[in-house]
# Entry
Amino acid sequence: MTKIIDLVNQFEVFAPKSMAEIGDPVGLQLGDINNTVTKVMTTLDVRPEVVQEAINKNVDFIFAHHPLIFRPAKNLDTTNPQNKMYADLLSHNITVYAAHTNLDNVTGGMNDWLASRLKLQETIPLVYTNSSDYGMGRIGNLTSPMTVIEFSEYCKKQFNISGLRLISNDLTQSIKRVAVLGGDGGKFYHEAIKQQADVYVTGDVYYHTAHDMLAEGLSVIDPGHHVESICKAQLKRLFGEWNLENNWQIEIIESDINTDPFQFI
# Structure
């Protein structure tokens, strides 16, 4: 029988925890890593509705991008939905593991998946970390130029979203060099400027930061944080390859739950 640690060890060869940003709570989140695994579910977020889905589908291992516990629990009162979620996971013997900024940084990980979705060419890391071997975000070139407004519509189509936030002084500006950083990447916009990006794609841009971006002449597309849900299918693909290579005979599924808290109306 395959154990959770077998899959985790294989993943950590691909994206070691040492690649994560300092203080990022990656790795085992809850449960027993030595348990047997027969069914794994990939997800962007671990929310109560995702946990219920896992229970309904007899999942014994949840592999998430976003860590389960960003803020420590102040008590274990299970009338609190977050605490009840932890209790449900434990009572159903479901183990949870998260790969966050190590998956963002690794070659062939989150930011390469996003860059590939935008069909960027000749990509390199946007923000190098402690090593010149890897870094956060990607910057590359479109196959042919577009205007800012055309690229905005292109992003909506490629990410399958109904709306986004656009920050630009000139919607008719021709762009070709694109920087992308999944999640909340507003603080890295100077790197996009430094690497001569015509446009920067990232989520959760802060109001006053958007003013600064405009003042410095950078066009920015904010498609939201949830575009990182691309990880569900990509992790399933990775695990499927390792499943065959190692003859693990694990069932691998993606969460069907949309965990985006925002709607465009």
Remarks:
- The two ends are 48 Å apart (CA to CA).
- The chain has a mean pLDDT of 96.
- The chain has two domains: 4-103+228-253, 107-222.
